[in-house]
Amino acid sequence: MPEAPPHMLFIARAMKRGRLAHAYLLFAGEYGALERELTALARLLLCSSPDLAGAAGCGRCGACRKVDHSTHPDLAWIGSEGGQVRIDAVKEFRSQVAFPPLAGERRVAVFPDAHRLNVESANAMLKVLEEPPPYLVFLLGAPQGASILKTIRSRCHLLFSPRPDDAAITGQAGGEVDMALLRMAHGDMAKVGLWSSPVYSNFKERFLRMVEAGDSPEGLLLALTLAQECGADEDGFGFMVHLSACLARDVLALRAGAEAFLVLPERVVRLAASRAGFSEVSDYVSWLSGISLLQDRNINRQFMLEKLLLFWLGGAVPAVGN
């Protein structure tokens, strides 16, 4: 029997020692892997007779069956609607978890779209996240490469699910694809199609060269020309924001010892990590989250991209709101 994934073993050990944290943020991969992994974690936490050695719910008890059918009374699943987690859904969740568990020793709250929490809904959630009742465990999820608001991420233990092997991903995608682009797009083949064009392939190649060049004249020239070209339209702007978010997430994953989870070339990630500390990259990710929410507004895209790219050459973290 294959060994359970590291994040499942981590939770199982915490349960065995009676040292569960109140909140975990899981970064997982493509093709529904995130939902499956969060369901498996919820099953483990709510199972009547969990297999802690094997890091899994038994799959046979009433609790496990109810988790699988989304009918467990102590499981709250708060998803997104219209691309965002709505504040009304968060408020309804807060009223539900104010009461003790009905069927077991704990309640589990699953937010599979943590990257879609906006500032308003995140603030509504913070009161419970900061001072949760002793019976409540949060399971937050986000696809690899996604940006998470710092106020949320800083209150969670980070978990990383190993990505699927390349053969499995290629088979599901239906042919030869750029694996890095597929992972960056979270399996969205429409994005992969757009990003596979020669123009975007060139943007990506120059971005990686820019990081390798650092604060040299070549690196500075690449940063400024990329900002000008990608800032000319919304698609180019979104691609560069996403690419930079992927690098930031890769740097955090590298520092957490999760090299197998990297999306971009490891040599580039290591160079980026050598120029920016953990707190700087964390602040940068928070700034990127705000930029993502502003993409559909009238902003100076070239100016934003200049600040975004110059960070990887050793520049300062842009101030929030700028």
List the defining traits of the structure above:
2 domains, Rossmann fold, alpha/beta, elongated, 5-stranded parallel β-sheet, 322 residues
Report on this model:
The chain has 322 residues and is an alpha/beta fold. α12 (234-255) runs parallel beside α15. The chain folds into two domains: 6-160, Rossmann fold; 197-313. The chain is built from 15 helices and five strands. It is elongated and about 60 Å long. It has a five-stranded parallel sheet, covered by helices on one side. Helix content is 52%, strand content 8%. The chain starts with 5 loop residues before the first helix and ends in a 12-residue tail after the last helix. The longest helix is centred in the last third of the chain and has 22 residues, at 234-255. It has helices at 6-17, 33-46, 62-68, 87-96, 119-130, 150-153, 166-173, 179-184, 189-195, 198-213, 217-230, 234-255, 266-275, 278-293, 301-310; strands at residues 23-28, 75-77, 107-111, 136-143, 157-160.
Low confidence ranges: 165-175
Q: What's the number of helices?
A: 15
Instruction: Return the CATH architecture of the largest domain.
Output: 3-Layer(aba) Sandwich
How helical, in percent, are the residues?
Answer: 40-55%
Name the average pLDDT: 83
